[in-house]
Amino acid sequence: xxxxxxxxxxxxxxxxxxxxxxxxxxxxxxxxxxxxxxxxxxxxxxxxxxxxxxxxxxxxxxx
Length: 63
Prior knowledge:
Elements (H helix, E strand, L loop, with lengths): L14 H17 L5 H26 L1
């Protein structure tokens, strides 16, 4: 049996950069949707992700 090698490539950009990109993409996708549950869910995810970015940045500064 041949084992598959694990992909150990580093993601492009820092954790905060990737989170910020996700939040921006979620906001853009939400703006394209009509008002409703799906749009509100995407906006909520964007706000939550931006909050995580702020917390992560604060924790990084304290090290």
